Amino acid sequence: MTEKLWDVVIVGGGPAGYSAALYAVRAGYSTLVVEMLSPGGQMATTNAIENYPGFVESVDGFELAMTMQQQAEKFGSETLYAQVTAVQLAGPEKHLTTTEGELRAKAVIFATGADPRPLGLAGEDGLRGRGVAYCATCDGGFYRGKTVAVAGGGNSAAEDALTLSKLCEKVYLIHRRDTLSATRSYLKPLEKAENIEFLWNKQVTGFEVDGTLTGLTLTDTRTGEESHLPVNGLFVAIGRQPNTWLVKDQLELDRQGYIVADESCRTSQPGVFAIGDVRTKPLRQVVTAVADGATASKYLEEYLNGLD
Amino acid sequence: MAMFSVTTQDFDKTVLEASAPVLVEFTAPWCGYCRRLAPVLQRMSADEGMLPIAAVNIDEEPALAERFKVDTIPTLLVFRGGSHGPALVAPATAAQIKEWLASQEV
Questions:
Q1: Alpha-carbon distance B19 to A4, whole Å?
Q2: B31 classed as catalytic
Q3: Which CATH code is given to the segment(s) A5-115+240-307?
Q4: pTM here?
């Protein structure tokens, strides 16, 4: 039995994936997006995106994801809801094994994105949903009127702290340095929020648990001194980790695990591209993800033309 | 099979006393991840042989969340003959839901 040979299979249905699909299908290529859950990726859990051009009053990430999918499918792109479990990327015909069957493609675009990075502390996994969370807009509602902490010092930490300050009685922002690395536009509202307290030069090094999380052990990053902070919840926002386990033995990755590719989105393997958050790049945003999708289609075309 | 919502009042009748297994999703409008899961359940509910899916809004029905010790959403439970199997919390993939259903032989 021979399955259809797709011109391009795109792994991941976030903003990068569906932008690539839109451009590839409009260039005349048979295009399949493989999505493991529902469109949008990380973007779909962001209620208000305020820096995506064209939306004065911000845009809902979930709605935008659905629209991007519809737009690509209007031109004939298709979606398979499945998880890719193995890939074979060498040679002119690529193979993908999914939970819904085998796929064959002339080219593969990885748009698998990134996920929140855990702290890596003992017991952390078991506390997921019992006091430790990774998405303030998702789980913030459980901590209404309670005391929480946010670990991190970048944009997602700042955003989480602001989201939580509207729901919770008290929010501690724990950062291992003495300044935030968040964009300046976050600083004023953070300082203005009366229930946010900054804890500088501190690192979460342990959990205090009584059925659920009851407190944190903090270690001063300069003196090594330990302290105790009673909280009902901890939101971890210390960055992201790329979803590259599928390709780690077949594509060149950087030290953090992102797929190495320049602006052309071409990876170390001919006919294989990386777009969006999973690619090495200086700024991971929706707007840079969709740009990757478009750019990759140009080099996809170049590659596919070369095959004939 | 269509999706329907269930309340504290009708839970026993429509879920616990149901003659066939029911998949219950604990959810809330503010839950971003629940929104991502909604189209998946919607899709699955259209599959042939899929069990009925009931949604509990934990904001409106805190008593049900309390009763089944749901402290994270989305949480999925399969009820059969008045009791439920293992919880599936915030599944990352549709495949995970199918596997979890299969492990409970539904």
A1: 43
A2: yes
A3: 3.50.50.60
A4: 0.85
